[in-house]
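Recall that a protein's primary structure is simply its ordered list of amino acids. Everything else, from secondary elements to tertiary packing, is in principle encoded there. The following example makes that idea concrete.
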Amino acid sequence: MPASVCQSNRIPLMLPPFAAPVLPAPWRLYPLGDAAVVLECGDVISPETHARIQALDAALEAYPLPGLVEYVPAFTTLTVFFDPWLLYQAGYPDPYAAVVEHVQQLLLPELAPLATQHAAPPVEVPVCYGGKFGPDLDEVARHTGLSPAEVISLHAAPDYLVYMIGFAPGFPYLGGLDTRLATPRKAQPRPLVPAGSVGIAGPQTGIYSLPTPGGWQLIGRTPLRLFRPGDAEPSLLHAGQRLRFVPISAAEFDQLATP
């Protein structure tokens, strides 16, 4: 197949082949434009799928390839962004093929143990439930047939898995919500949800990291700032972490929210 030409740097950039690369099940790979590839690990959101994605992410960190720019994990995918010009300068005339081959090598069984991560203690997130901080707590209680106190108890009981950061910078999508708390999104989204709001949407729970519109059922709020753009690590939470909600009073909220 003839190569296209990158006009900015005048380097040959081989177009991806039509045949999908051979990868061990359940993985598949496909190009995303001419400077990224998506690794898809099946189509089921689960801790097992998440562990595979985190394992590949760790392997890419342990064995970097010149020209790889960023790895973005999601529920069932890991997107690998690369700079074709840097790969070409590093001696890879076909940047796409080099990235595909690199990923294929990392998915070999003998490399899998390199991605094993040590379990860290869960991040404790203080939450003031109900009242002005959780205006939809009573609605969730009505929908689920539980009392507000039972909703709070069930929501604060498990350790949650941060599946991914998305929607807004620092917004964690969490797995592990008790199925008894599942509640549909609001029919009419709010034009502005305060930062720190803890919500439920269907079988998921999450935390609004910034003031944004949103339709999740708000049951509480944390005084923690999940996103600090001026920090070296702007996001408080990252995919793969564990999180635990800790109920606090309104007075404790005000104390913790004081700079």
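The chain is about 25% helix and 30% strand. The two ends are 60 Å apart (CA to CA).
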